[in-house]
Amino acid sequence: MTFDTRAFRNALGCYPTGVAVITTEVSANHHMGITVNSFTSVSLDPQLVLWCLDRKSDRYHAFTKAAGYTVSILGTAHKDVSSRLAGRGNHSLDGIALHMTELGPPALADALSVFECKAEAVHDAGDHAILIGRVIRFACQDGDPPLVYFRGRYGALAQA
Description:
The structure is a single chain. By secondary structure, this protein is mainly beta. The chain has helices at residues 5-12, 60-64, 79-86; strands spanning 17-18, 20-27, 30-36, 40-44, 47-54, 68-73, 98-99, 107-108, 113-125, 128-140, 147-150, 153-156. The chain has a single domain (17-146), classed as Electron Transport, Fmn-binding Protein, Chain A (Pnp Oxidase, Chain A). A hairpin with a 2-residue loop joins strand 2 and strand 3. The protein is globular.
C-alpha cells in the first residue's frame, strides 16, 4: 500500500487550529520568531505546554537549544505577522509591535494570551521535535477574535 502524503496532510488540515508565534532569544537583544499551529496544553500541575517544530526548519537549533521562549496566541489582527514568520527566511521580529517580558523573548503586542516558558524537554517525533515548556508567567486579555487555520487558510472564529 502506498501512502499519499499530500492526502494525509489535507486530511489533517480539516482540523481547525489556533495560531501562535513562538519567540526566543538568539543572542543579546536579538530575537527570532516562528508561527506554529501545534501549540497545546499538557499539564495543569506542573503547568506545561507543548508545540512542534519541523526538524528541517532553519530555526530548529535556535529553539531546541533555547533556555526558554514566549508563546503569543494570535488574534485576527496578527494575520500578516503570522504569514511573515511562517516560512523560511524572514524570522526577525524587526518592525513587529512587541511587548517585553520578564523572561526575555518578547511577546507580540495585543496577543490574546502570552505564556513565558522555560524549556522543559525536547523529544524527537518523526520529522518533527516536540518542545515542552514550563509556564513561569502568563497573561490573557480581550481582543480580536482568535486567528484560526483550516484547510491551508487563515480564518476567524465566529463570536457567539
